[in-house]
């Protein structure tokens, strides 16, 4: 198993400390839309005799990614930020630990925690909970309730929580409205869960963002290392 030393940056992140000036990014601007190609001729009229397709009701289903071969499973719950690369990197840093990711992109904390209750988690698993990004950050009680529900589903009681990542939208820069609310939410998460919380924003730089919120592998690697360091330090 690869030993990993808790870095100064990771310690700072655990305590929630980092200069706000270091977290100020140029607001993300979406790329210009590509103009669709114009049809070569008039559109073909619809066939009035064709059966009308009935829309299928939306179904929520985790994407489940598993890997690794050794040790107690690391069970990861999250949205699109909990990517396959993130789970694979945590596993690799811990000597190819078994891991399983349960994630749905764009999904609220309460929906994720509710679905997580249907999952059978191994008795010795270590949980990594990273939810809340897709909620209104002012819904502090709702996100805290969802985190508590997910944590209660880890039989071993061994779990870490990643707080809500702030991104590159204009209102998420220090002093912006969403940023103020997200900072308050993250403070409430730290107040409830103490040293189980890893503060993720101080770990990444503006250049680690691939868009307004998602991260390049470079950013995912930094957060994965902080998670692996904590699992190793706690001998989990």
Give your account of this protein's structure.
The protein has a single domain, classed as Rossmann fold. It contains 6 helices and 6 strands. It has helices at residues 8-14, 84-93, 109-116, 140-152, 177-193, 217-233, and strands spanning 63-67, 70-78, 97-103, 126-130, 159-162, 197-198. The chain has a 6-stranded mixed β-sheet, with helices on both faces. Strand 4, helix 4 (140-152) and strand 5 (159-162) form a beta-alpha-beta unit. The radius of gyration is 20 Å and the shape is globular. The two termini are 12 Å apart.
Describe what is shown at a glance.
The protein has a single domain (61-233), classed as Rossmann fold (3-Layer(aba) Sandwich), CATH 3.40.50.1110. 31% of the residues lie in helices and 14% in strands.
Report helical residue fraction: 25-40%
Low-confidence stretches: 1-18
Note the overall shape. Answer: globular
Fraction of residues in β-strands: 5-15%
Strand order of the largest sheet: 1-3-2-4-5-6
The N- to C-terminal Cα distance equals: 12 Å
CATH secondary-structure class: Alpha Beta
Reading the helices and strands in chain order gives HEEHEHEHEHEH
Count the E strands: 6
CATH superfamily: SGNH hydrolase
Whole-angstrom Rg: 20 Å
- Report the CATH architecture: 3-Layer(aba) Sandwich
């Amino acid at each position: 198993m690869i030993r990993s030393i808790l870095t100064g940056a990771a310690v700072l992140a655990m305590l929630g400390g980092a200069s706000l000036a270091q977290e100020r990014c140029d607001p993300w601007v979406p790329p210009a839309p590509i103009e669709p190609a114009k049809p070569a001729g008039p559109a073909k009229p619809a066939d009035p005799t064709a059966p009308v397709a009935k829309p299928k009701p939306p179904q929520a289903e985790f994407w489940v990614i598993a890997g690794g071969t050794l040790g107690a499973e690391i069970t990861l719950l999250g949205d699109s930020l909990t990517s396959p690369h993130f789970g694979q990197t945590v596993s690799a840093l811990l000597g190819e630990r078994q891991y399983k990711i349960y994630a749905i992109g764009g999904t609220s904390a309460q929906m994720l925690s509710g679905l997580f209750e249907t999952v059978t988690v191994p008795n010795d698993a270590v949980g990594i909970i990273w939810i809340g990004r897709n909620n209104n950050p002012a819904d502090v009680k709702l996100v805290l309730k969802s985190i508590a529900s997910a944590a209660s589903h880890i039989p071993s009681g061994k779990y870490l929580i990643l707080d809500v990542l702030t991104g590159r939208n204009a209102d998420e820069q220090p002093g912006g409205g969403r940023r103020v609310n997200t900072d308050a939410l993250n403070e409430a998460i730290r107040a409830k869960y103490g040293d189980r919380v890893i503060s993720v924003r101080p770990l990444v730089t503006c250049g680690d963002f691939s868009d307004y919120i998602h991260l390049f592998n470079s950013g995912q690697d930094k957060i994965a290392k902080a998670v692996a360091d904590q699992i190793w330090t706690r001998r989990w």
